[in-house]
Design a protein that fits this description.
The complex is a heterodimer. Chain A is an alpha/beta fold. Chain A has 2 domains: 216 residues, 3-Layer(aba) Sandwich (Glutaconate Coenzyme A-transferase), CATH 3.40.1080; 52 residues, Defensin A-like, CATH 3.30.30. Chain A contains 10 helices and 13 strands. Chain B has one domain: Glutaconate Coenzyme A-transferase, CATH 3.40.1080.10. In chain B, strands 3-8-10-11-12 form a 5-stranded mixed sheet, with helices on both faces. Chain B has a 3-stranded mixed sheet with strand order 5-4-9, with no helix packed on it. In chain B, strands 1-2 form a two-stranded parallel ribbon. In chain B, helix 2 packs across helix 6 and helix 6 packs antiparallel against helix 7. The C terminus of chain B is likely disordered. Helix content of chain B is 31%, strand content 19%. By secondary structure, chain B is an alpha/beta fold. Classes of the chains: A alpha/beta, B alpha/beta.
Chain lengths: 286, 258
């Protein structure tokens, strides 16, 4: 119907140029675009400036480990219950990547400034934190409306590309995001947004009164590709669960560079398994 | 630690006691014991006819928020969140916390952790922040943190309605005096001693003349934990629930775990 719909995650990944400022979404909830991340690694993208919104897990860790990232701007990279993010730790320690430390609400506020098209937003907190001390783009300013009230000004964050996975999209490029409303801020702030989705909705999402409020209109979307189980090994709220076995396997393997290389070999370069193994397990019991 | 309860159950009951009077308790990621304590508090408050809310970040239950993380931070900024939990790879005697790394030369420190998450904001905004750290040692309880993710105290002109209230470890409970920027030992867990706490703490703190033993959970509390809290906390924290409560924790929503 339109050229906004691409064939697969690899076609989507081909739209991310080297050196892009790429915003990716936190792991919880299933909006981390993992299939597209594997495709980015296969494509061999380089020098990304990764902005995690506001944190990341396996997605940032794999991109860093695979040498795709020059800079990561983040409030946290972690494997959660499975432990520290090993590739991130190695790369920061060795100086292989530049890390810009942030805090979650500052990432949101920066994106909100971006979506408003204004240069900065002020945020409470932060004063006295070493985060501020090490960021020359943050400013402690005086509240212009009151006396003796310091507050931190945060520059707008304008990603070149926002990338996430969604449960549903339509052929027009509208994307349904469920309860993950922060994705709207991310998509509004970015110059364009690339999306993988579990499946296509028949008809136009914006014409459905129950779905439209949680839908990002196509004017923000650059391209969409269907990727079934596109968040795996993370789960998608209401559709499928985290693959705990694979996440634990990653946490173990990625502890060494050799183990990480083996993970890439079996997960990213040997293409079939992520999409296929997914059909069997486990929709939530509740 | 002897007795017919697990250390986790003692800590959950202790933290639930600290949460008394909090109408909205928020819990961050990777916090199964604080999350369990919040659910225990809510259960007790409901029994008493009070409407206590619990938000566990990264889950859809209970779903008081539909605007994701932004909603949590904005509502905390307005004073709608009464209690929150933070931890640290390092915590120092002025309640500064470090979630970033160990050693000189930031950002290229010799140990790198995940990052500061929401701490640099929520520590300022939430009235009752409970610090929680299961490893109580001179490695974690240090004289001065190597990186201040979030400061324990602020100058008087900095807008700060919130801050540290207590520190719970596997050895003891400290309370924090914000005016003096100093911890005071409030109780020591059964099986441990004041001397042991002192030996394993890298910062100075006040020791009252008598330090009580942390009250162990009673039979009623243990029953609520095992029957009511366990299946609820198993949804965000399946591995934790399985480890502490075995099969009880698995009845919640843990399918799909290999």
């Amino acid at each position: 119907m339109s050229d906004i719909l691409l064939a697969d995650a690899d076609a989507l990944a081909a739209q991310v140029p080297d050196g892009a400022k790429l915003a990716v979404f936190k792991a919880e909830g299933g909006c981390a675009a993992m299939a597209a991340t594997f495709a980015l690694i296969r494509r061999g993208v380089r020098d990304l400036h990764l902005v995690t919104v506001p944190t990341s897990g396996l997605q940032a860790d794999m991109l860093i480990g695979a040498g795709c990232v020059a800079t990561v701007e983040t409030s946290g990279v972690t494997l959660g219950e499975y432990g520290q993010a090993p590739c991130f730790g190695r790369a920061v320690r060795s100086g292989a990547i530049r890390v810009i430390d942030s805090t979650c609400p500052a990432v949101y506020a920066g994106l909100q400034a971006g979506e408003k098209g204004i240069p900065f937003l002020p945020l409470r907190g932060l004063i006295g934190s070493d985060i501020v001390r090490h960021r020359d783009d943050y400013r402690v300013i005086d509240n212009p409306l009151a006396a003796d009230d310091p507050i931190v000004a945060l520059p707008a964050i304008v990603p070149d590309i926002a990338l996430f996975h969604a449960p549903l999209a339509d052929r027009f490029g509208n994307v349904w995001i469920g309860r993950h409303a922060e994705l709207k801020i991310m998509a509004h702030a970015a110059r364009t947004t690339l999306v993988t989705c579990e499946r296509l909705h028949d008809g136009n999402l914006l014409q459905d009164e129950t779905l439209a409020p949680a839908t990002i209109p196509e004017m923000y979307i650059g391209a969409v590709a269907v990727a079934e189980r596109g968040a795996a090994p993370y789960g998608v709220t209401g559709l499928y669960e985290d693959d705990a076995g694979r996440l634990a396997a990653y946490a173990g393997m990625a502890k060494t560079e050799e183990g990480f290389a083996a993970w890439l070999e079996e997960t990213v370069y040997g293409r079939p398994r992520i999409g296929v193994r997914g059909m069997a397990p486990a929709v939530a019991a509740e | 630690m002897a007795g017919d309860y697990a250390l986790e159950e003692l800590l959950i009951a202790t933290v639930a006691g600290l949460l008394e009077g909090c109408g909205h308790i928020a819990v961050g990621v990777s916090s199964p014991i604080p999350g369990s304590a919040a659910l225990l508090r809510r259960h007790r408050d409901r029994e008493a006819g009070r409407r206590t809310r619990v938000s566990i970040i990264g889950t859809t239950i209970p779903a008081y928020r539909t605007d994701g993380g932004v909603d949590l931070f904005d509502s905390a900024g307005q004073g709608r969140v009464d209690a929150f939990f933070l931890s640290g790879g390092q915590i120092d005697g002025r309640a500064n916390i470090n979630l970033v790394g160990v050693g000189e030369g930031y950002p290229q420190q010799k140990v790198r952790w995940s990052g500061s998450f929401g701490s640099a904001y929520l520590y300022f905004m939430v009235p009752k922040v409970i610090l929680f750290r299961l490893e109580h040692s001179r490695r974690t309880m240090v004289e001065a943190v190597d990186f201040v993710s979030a400061p324990g105290t602020s100058p008087p002109n900095v807008h700060r309605p919130g801050g540290p209230y207590a520190l719970v470890t596997d050895l003891c409970l400290f309370r924090f005096d914000r005016r003096r920027a100093r911890f005071s030992l409030a109780s020591v867990h059964p099986g441990h001693t004041v001397g042991e706490v002192r030996d394993n703490t890298g910062f100075d703190f006040d020791i009252p003349e008598t330090v009580p033993e942390t009250a162990p959970p009673d039979a009623e509390t243990l029953a609520v934990l095992r029957e009511t809290v366990a299946p609820d906390i198993a949804n965000p924290y399946p591995n934790f629930a399985r480890r502490v409560w075995g099969a009880r924790g698995v009845s919640g929503g843990v399918s799909g775990a290999a």
